[in-house]
Amino acid sequence: MSHSDAKNIMVYVETVSDTPLNGGLEILTKAHKLAAARGEEVIAVLIGSNLEHAANTAIMAGADKVILVTKDNYEMEVYEAILTRLAEKYKPSLILSAGTLVGKDILPLVAGNLTTGCAVDVMEITDKDGNFVFTCPVYGGTVLNDLVIKGTPAVAAVRSGAFEKELVVERTGEIIKEQVGVENTVRAKIVEVVNEMAETVNLEEAQVIVSGGRGMGNKENFRLVEELALACHGVVGATRPAIEAEWVPRSHQVGQSGKIVAPKLYIACGISGATQHVSGMIGSGYIVAVNKDEDAPIFDIADVGIVGDVVKVVPLLIEEIKKIQSL
Amino acid sequence: MEMLVCIKQVPDDSVEISLDLGTKEPALIGVTPVVNAFDTYALEMAARLKETFGGEITVVSVGNDEVKNSLKNCLAVGADHAYLVKHEKSESLDPCGIANILKKAVHDIEGELETKFDLILCGKESTDYASSQVGLLLASKLRLPVATNIIKVEPMDGIMRIKQETEEGYRSIEAKTPCVVTVQKPDYDPRYPTIKSKMAARKKEIKELSPSEEVSSMLEVIRVFEPAKRVAGIKLKADNEQEVVAQAMSVMTAAKVF
Ligand SMILES: Cc1cc2nc3c(=O)[nH]c(=O)nc-3n(C[C@H](O)[C@H](O)[C@H](O)COP(=O)(O)OP(=O)(O)OC[C@H]3O[C@@H](n4cnc5c(N)ncnc54)[C@H](O)[C@@H]3O)c2cc1C
């Protein structure tokens, strides 16, 4: 694709049960700011069925145009082909999506089809002299890289929680229905989709998160983490060892291979503070840590560190917080 | 079942890598090179498949001579053959460049071993750059089916039955062989080498391959920096838990946490 005629930002917005996922809406709001500064537009792409309501939400979040493509089921290769066709037709200078499993599957393939490059885990996007600059973590987030993509369009999958969503009811936009014919390209066929999570865990949007690690000792003690979360009106998080011990389902994992979170308050109980965990919660407003080892690395990033046994400290915390909450 | 596992050598992921303020590069001197954690999960998955279904495991990596050590380690935990695509500056390649080289390597190795791979396994991402794209792009270039983030794969009647981990649960995927998978951490850990397997690996040869023609990287790093550091707050210690918690609560209420 030639550089000269590429403009506007295309955002693929993933939907589940006809509802747009937050990640996509957050990106629309960011894209709106970037595009408006250039005098350009944001084109949202939604694929599925019954998407009229979702299209309106996308407009509220920042889309100037919403392209709707009707498809019943998700197939990676079909979605990849649709997005590639739309990019060829609309010639955006930037294609974005949330870094979900779907986003991280299709965007690199779309970039490959368009002989350009794709950045993933993007934490920030800036517009520098007409080039988009992407900030990405390396080595688990202890070092950051700013990178530019030399091909056109630039393609990037954004980390959850990187941007904030703003829904403006008064915004207006155009809804376009596109028919995109793709040959039957499916090589890996999805035969069953299983939802294992009894509850939906919204760690990304939680204001308070109470997380437990291996130091909780056993499943029974891990209940203390849940109780403390309940007392603070928070959501339960966990480290990988706590998940692997099956004290809590994997949807609660915080860190490099779990969720990236940024609550106002993060309470870490029996967590050592390994890079892979810390990179997922370092953006928290206020960090409280309880650990019996006074040299635990978690204390280097905690606003308040309590050196002590979780089994003794956490029940007291619960008691004190309940007192405050009932005032 | 004939399997190929793609390996990347990375700095030990348990070491916190900081920025060398002099060179403005990540400070990697003295950090032990290891096989990328997710690649070790892929190799373990292959080793278990070999135990059940037979066949051989080949490992391949792109890099300089230093990578041979990591390939030896793979030979000690289940791999039968090891190939190194010699490249002195593999760090300068983007995922597409690596996938291009691996595509040629797949054909070269299949020619040398006079075999066809049924399954190509990659880690779902590397612990250094975590771009999570090589497996996808390799499959795309080879025009093979691909499934990412998988925790199980099993051959059955000429197809591969794959379990892919999703945010909410999992998907069952069926793909014709050959296919490519990228491996997430399953609920088992990679095996350790034994003294005997290490000795045997040391005797094995690591064969060298030449890379494909270079494609220019689409990604250019323009700045390397460290995230804003958090300053440690206060650490409270006391022999009496009641007392520490009371102190902590007063600090938190003063900070208007509650
Ligand atoms: C590729 C890769 C990806 C990873 N992704 C993630 C990820 O997404 N999320 C994640 O969390 N981890 C991840 N990990 C694992 C990570 O490296 C650490 O192993 C993990 O975060 C440690 O968890 P932990 O703090 O619960 O356990 P540990 O490191 O074992 O720490 C337990 C802590 O509890 C303290 N303790 C013990 N008993 C008590 C007590 N009675 N009272 C108070 N304190 C006590 C100990 O002092 C210790 O500090 C990943 C690893 C790899 C290789």
TrEMBL record, chain A:
Coiled coil: none annotated. Keywords: FAD, Flavoprotein. InterPro entries: DHS-like_NAD/FAD-binding_dom, ETF_a/b_N, ETF_a/FixB, ETF_alpha_N, ETF_asu_C, Rossmann-like_a/b/a_fold. The keyword Flavoprotein applies. Pfam families: ETF, ETF_alpha. Residues 9-194 form the Electron transfer flavoprotein alpha/beta-subunit N-terminal domain. Its cofactor is FAD. FAD binds at residues 214, 239-240, 253-257, 270-277, 291. One of its GO terms (molecular function) is electron transfer activity. Binds 1 FAD per dimer. SUPFAM superfamilies: Adenine nucleotide alpha hydrolases-like, DHS-like NAD/FAD-binding domain. One of its GO terms (biological process) is fatty acid beta-oxidation using acyl-CoA dehydrogenase. PANTHER family: ELECTRON TRANSFER FLAVOPROTEIN ALPHA, ELECTRON TRANSFER FLAVOPROTEIN SUBUNIT ALPHA, MITOCHONDRIAL. Belongs to the ETF alpha-subunit/FixB family. This is Electron transfer flavoprotein subunit alpha. It comes from Lacrimispora algidixylanolytica.
UniProtKB/TrEMBL annotation, chain B:
SMART domains: ETF (SM00893). Residues 23-218 form the Electron transfer flavoprotein alpha/beta-subunit N-terminal domain. Gene3D superfamilies: HUPs (3.40.50.620). Pfam families: ETF (PF01012). It comes from the Bacteria. GO terms for molecular function: electron transfer activity. PANTHER family: ELECTRON TRANSFER FLAVOPROTEIN BETA-SUBUNIT, PROTEIN FIXA. This is Electron transfer flavoprotein small subunit. The lineage of its organism: Bacteria, Bacillati, Bacillota, Clostridia, Lachnospirales.
